[in-house]
From TrEMBL, chain A:
The keyword Transport applies. Coiled coil: none annotated. TPR repeats lie at residues 235-268, 303-336. PANTHER family: CAPSULE POLYSACCHARIDE EXPORT INNER-MEMBRANE PROTEIN CTRC, INNER MEMBRANE TRANSPORT PERMEASE. This is ABC transporter permease. The lineage of its organism: Bacteria, Pseudomonadati, Pseudomonadota, Alphaproteobacteria, Hyphomicrobiales. The chain crosses the membrane at residues 415-438, 450-468, 489-514, 534-554, 618-637. Belongs to the ABC-2 integral membrane protein family.
From TrEMBL, chain B:
Belongs to the ABC transporter superfamily. Residues 2-218 form the ABC transporter domain. Keywords: ATP-binding, Nucleotide-binding, Transport. Pfam families: ABC_tran. The keyword ATP-binding applies. This is ABC transporter ATP-binding protein. The keyword Phosphoprotein does not apply. It comes from the Bacteria. InterPro entries: ABC_transporter-like_ATP-bd (IPR003439), ABC_transporter-like_CS (IPR017871), ABC_transpr_TagH-like (IPR015860), Bact_Polysacc_Export_ATP-bd (IPR050683), P-loop_NTPase (IPR027417). PROSITE patterns: ABC_TRANSPORTER_1, ABC_TRANSPORTER_2.
Amino acid sequence: MTDAERLSAETPIEAVRARLASDEAAAALSVDDLLIASEIAYVSRDLVTSVRAMTLLVARAPESAPFHHRLAILLFESGDAAGAAASAALAVRHDPALEPAHDLLVQARLQAGDIEGAISAAEARATLCVPSQAGQLQMARLLVQANRVEEALQAVHSVNDGGAPTEESLLMEIELAYRSGDLHAASNAAARAARLWPDAAAPRDKLARILFELSHHGRAIPLLLRLREEQPDDASVCHLLAASYASMGKNRLALDAILEALRIDPGNGEYLYMAGALSNRLGERDQGILYLRQAVAAAPDKAEIHVELAHALAHANEDEEAVEVIDRASQLAPASTSVRDLRLFLLAKRSGREPVAPAGGSGLFPPMPRAPWRDRPPRPPSRLGAIGEQLLTQARVLTALVLRDFRHRTAQGRFGFLSLFIPQAINILTLGIVLSLFNGGMPPIGGHLFFFYATGVMPFYLFIHVIDHSQNLFQDNIGVLQVPVIARLDLVLAMALTELLIGFTVIVVTFGTFELISYGPRSDNHIEAVYATLAVWLFALGLGLISAVMNNLWRPWANGWMITQRFLYVASGVFFLPQSMPEWIREPLSWNPLLQCIEWFRTGFFRDYEPPWLDKSYILAVAFGTVLVGLILERALRRRMRTQ
Amino acid sequence: MIRLERVSKSYAVPGGRHVILDDVSFELPPLSRVGIFGVNGAGKSALLRLIAGSEMPDRGRIVREGRISFPVGFTGTFHPHLSARENVAFLARVYGMNHDEVSAWIEEFAELDRYFDMPVGTYSSGMFARIAVATSFAFDFDLYLVDEVIEVGDASFRRKCAAAFGERMHSASLILVSQHVETIRQYCNLGAVLHRGKLSDFTTIDEALETYERSLRAT
C-alpha cells in the first residue's frame, strides 16, 4: 500500500494519533492543525490525545487564555483535577474576565480537595467578573463545605435580601440559619419561602419543624395539619403534630396524632413511648402500659421508656414489675439521679405497702373525716376547671376569714353586736353636744345636728377602721398564714370585707333609726350614699394594703398613721362643710380624697346639696390607684416580709 | 406533688447572711414519706415554711399540686378568743370539709369534754397541744408537713396519735423534719440531709443517716 492509499484508509483519529506520535511529527503541525487534532480526539473520546494536542498548542501560544481554559476542561474531564486547576488559573491570569475559567477553577480546586483555594477562586470571580446570583450561591455552598456556616449564611442572606430569591436559595438560608442556631432567622426565611411558594411543601415543612423547635406550637399546628394532608405517609409529621398538641395540653388530639403515626410506622419505639405517656396522662393506664411494653420491646436501650413504664406500673400498684423495670432503667442510665430516686421510691413503696399503723385506728377513735374531693371521680386536667377550683378555694378562704373576724369582734366585750355601734355613737353624741354650744346649735346644713354629724362620722369611721385593723394584720396573723391556702392578700381583703359589712350595717341601722323617728331631712337619693360608701371602702382597702405591707417592714409607719388620722379627722369635713371655710383653705382641702368621699356621702341625704368641688372621677381614680399601688407594693416586697 | 426548682433562701444575720437553701432542687414522689435530718439552725423549719408557701424563696420556684397541711400540731392557727369548735369550723370552711363531722371527730379524739366550747386561750399547754394535733389529723390532706411533733400527751394519747397519723399515711405523702432519728425511722421510708444550704438526694433512711453522721463529723 502506498502512502497515499494508507492515508486515505486512516480514520481521522488514527491520523491524529499518527501525527502526534512523535515530537518531530507534531512539530510539523500548525496551530490550526493542533486545534483540529485536539477536537477530533475529543469527539472520539480519546482524552489523552486531545490533552496532548492542546498541551502542544498551549506551548505554542502561552498567552492565550482560551487555550489554557480548553486544556483545563480536557484535564478536568480526564480526571486530573490538579492539572485542570493549574491550567484554569493560567487562563484566569491571562484573561481575568473569563467567567467560565473562574467557574472551572473553583470546580477543579474543589475536586482536588482544596476548599480554601476554591473559596479564594470564587472570591476572585466575584471581584473580577460581573456579580451574579449564581456566583454568590456557589460561594455560599463552598463556605458550607468549608464549614464556615456564618459566612455562608451571610452570603446566601445577601442573595435573598438583595434580589429575587429562589426556592433553593431560601431553603439554603433556612438550613444555614438553623445550623447556626438562629432559629428566629430560620423561621423568618421559612415563612418568606412559604409565602412566596404557597403550594411548595418543602418550605412549609421546614417552617413547621422550626416553629416546633421554637415552641410556637400554636403556629406550627395548622402547617402540620396541612402537611399531614399532603404527605399522608410521613409519620414524622404526625409525630410533630402529636408533640405540639401535647405541649399545649391537648392530650386527646395528641394521642390521635401519634396513633396515626403508629399506623404508618407501627414498630417505632419513640411513637409507642409517646402513645403510652399520653394514654397515662389521659388516665387510660391499661392502654398506656400496653403501649409502653411494646415501646420497651422496640427500643430496649432507652432508659426514659422504662422510667415511664415503671411510673405507670406503680400507679397501677404493680409494684413488683415496676421495680423490675426501674432496675433495667438504672442499668441503662446508672448516673441518672432521677432514675435512682424513682428506684428508691419504688423499693420503699414495695416494702412500705404495709401501713405505719393498722387502718381504722384499732378502735382507738371513730372513722376519720374524709375530704369530699377524694370521692369525686378523677377528671382530666383542664385550665377552666383549675381556675374554677381556685376561685372556689378563694371564696371559701374569704368566707372563713370574714366569719372568724366577725365572730371575734362580736364575741369580745359585754355588748356583743351592739359593741360595733359604740365608737360611732360616742363620737356623734360628743360632737353634737360640744358643737351645739356654737352657732346656736344649728348644723351647717339641714336642721338636725346629730344627723349632720352622722353623715360625716359614718364614712370616716369605715375608712379609719379598715386602716387601723390593717396596721398589724400580717404580724397578728402569722399563725394563720401557716395555712398554705391563706395568703396575705386574703387577710387584707377579708378584713376589709368584714369592715364593709359592719360599717354598712351600722349605717343602715343608724339612718334607718333616724328615718323611723322622723329625724333628719327627706331624700330619695340614698343610692349616692351607697356608692360613696363603696368608694371610701375601696380607698381604705388600697391604703390598708399599703399600711399592712409598710408596717410589717417599717414600724414607724404606725406612728405616722396615728398622726395622720388625727389630721384627717379635722381636715375631712367630718364636722363642717368645706363651704364654710375660706377659699385659701377650701382649695387645698378639696384635694383630700376622704373629704371628697364624705361630701359624696352627704349628697345622698341632703337633697339640694351639690358641692361644686365634688369630683367623683377623682375619688375613683385615687381609690383604684391606691389599690393598684398596694398590690404592686405587696408583690414587690413579698419576699422581704417578716414571717416569724 | 411538690417540686423545688433551684430554690435559694437566706436570712440577714449580724455580719452577713445565713444561707438556708442554696440552689436546691427536688421533686417529691407521690405517696412518699421523707424524713429530713439536720442540725439546729440548718433550716429545716424554714424549708417547711417554704413548701407550705407561708414564706417566699429568694430565688427559684416551688410548684405545689394537691392539698398541703399546715404544720402538724401547730397552735398558731387557733384564735385564743374563740372556742376549739369555732376554730375548727374556721379551718373546715377553709378546706371545704364538713365542720360538724370534723368537730365531732376532734371532740372525741382530743377528749376535752366541756373545754371544747371554751376559748382556747383558757387551755393548759397540754390541752392546747392535744387539740392542735387532733385538728391536724382530722383534715384530709395530700401532703402532711411535720416539724418534730406527731405525738403528744400521755402514753395512751400518743398511741392514738400514731395510729391516726398512720391511717392518714395510706393516702398522703409526708415531709417530716426532725433531729430525732427514731421519729424519722418510725414514720418515713425515704431520708435526706439538709446541711449548709444543700439538701442531699433522697435515699433510704440508713443511707441518709450515714450522710447525716458524716456531715455532723465535718461540722
